[in-house]
Specification:
Elements: H1 2-31, E1 75-84, H2 87-90, E2 100-108, E3 114-121, H3 124-129, E4 146-152, H4 156-162, E5 164-172, H5 173-189, E6 196-199, E7 208-210, H6 215-228, E8 240-248, E9 252-255, H7 257-261, H8 267-277, H9 286-302, E10 305-310, E11 313-330
Parallel strand pairs: 6-8
Antiparallel strand pairs: 1-2, 1-5, 2-3, 3-4, 6-7, 8-11, 9-11, 10-11
């Protein structure tokens, strides 16, 4: 009889604990904000010496990232710039797949000088999208930073030959200087690149889990800032941008480097994450590359699994068809919102 009482007491306690646990979990789910907000920082850290760029970042820009001050009465023309990714190496090839890079051009009517402003990866796209698996490190090692680059000159041939160079607006020198202050703050607090937009499906009203943070998003943010300042836009062309999507069910939060890969971490999850990222390593041969493609297909399509690193934290994505997709969709230029 005493044993039965103990079992009944244990069952009641377990039921209460279970209800509380599931209630806490449900509350946490309700409190989770989607899409997950992009994390901002109070300063930009120094890059690790291990991270090396194949092509130097912003080679002709100012070393300290400074932007020239314009005279308040100046009239600054604003240009939409778009060209295929790596056009300097592959010409218009990637443009046929609508894989495009975006930037903004400026021209001072007082001085006649032209300027280009763009935001891109410090260590190329592959390093921003997938980590290095270093033998001496427990956790995957990321070389992921993106930053704004401002330099004098607009390379007309680069943008016109396979892409777009179109005047979309004008603003005063005073507005340009205000924009420059905002750019410096945006650049110091938004430090890492995010390739993927993650959502439920390609339909018209999907749930969005994570937003990308790339060159086109920088252009959109800048256009919106200009519109907030009262700058109006005009364009005779449809404004399309490249986006890379992953499709999944609701993501599961896993933790960060310490909670997953630390001494008291989850060894099973740590092993699964490393196993997932292994085929994304730089291939050593054509044979390795083909084997890696098969492994990626197995992980993403057959196992329906993807591990996303966002805000320096890991999430698991339960993948859904069509799994991944590159789109070139229209995102209109912003309009000025008149205050009531």
């Amino acid at each position: 009889m005493k044993r039965l009482h103990l079992i009944l007491i244990w069952t009641v306690c377990l039921a209460k604990w279970s209800l509380q646990a599931f209630g806490d979990l449900d509350t946490a789910r309700r409190q989770q904000k989607w899409p997950v907000p992009y994390r901002r920082f109070d300063h930009r850290p120094e890059a690790d010496p291990y991270c090396q760029a194949v092509y130097q970042f912003c080679p002709t820009g100012s070393p300290d990232g400074s932007i020239p001050v314009m005279k308040d009465a100046d009239v600054i023309e604003v240009f939409r710039l778009q060209a295929p990714v790596w056009e300097f190496k592959y010409g218009g090839l990637l443009g046929h797949f609508h894989i495009m890079h975006d930037a903004i051009g400026f021209r001072s009517t007082l001085s006649g000088r032209n300027y280009t402003m763009e935001w891109y990866e410090l260590f190329q796209l592959g390093n921003c999208t997938f980590p290095h698996l270093r033998a001496e490190a427990e956790a995957p090692f990321w070389c992921n930073q993106g930053a704004a680059c401002f330099f004098e000159e607009i390379d007309d041939q680069h943008w016109k030959q396979n892409g777009t160079l179109e005047k979309v607006s004008e603003m005063t020198g005073a507005q340009f200087n205000e924009m420059a202050k905002w750019i410096r703050k945006d650049n110091e607090t938004g430090i890492y690149y995010e390739t993927w937009t993650v959502q439920t499906d390609p339909g018209p009203n999907p749930a969005v889990w994570f937003d990308s943070y790339d060159c086109s998003q920088f252009v959109h943010r800048t256009y919106r800032k200009l519109a907030d300042m009262g700058v109006s836009f005009t364009s005779q062309l449809q404004t399309n941008y490249t986006r890379i999507f992953l499709y999944s069910g609701e993501p599961t939060f896993l933790g960060n480097d310490t909670t997953i890969f630390g001494a008291a971490g989850n060894k099973t999850v740590a092993s699964d994450i490393k196993r997932f990222y292994h085929p994304f390593r730089p291939p050593q041969s054509i044979k390795d590359f083909l084997v890696s493609l098969l492994e990626i297909y197995e992980r993403v399509v057959l196992e329906k699994s993807f591990y996303l690193y966002y805000n320096y934290e890991y999430w698991h994505l339960p993948m859904k068809p069509p799994y991944i997709r590159i789109t070139y969709e229209e995102i209109p230029l912003p309009r000025i919102h008149k205050k009531p």
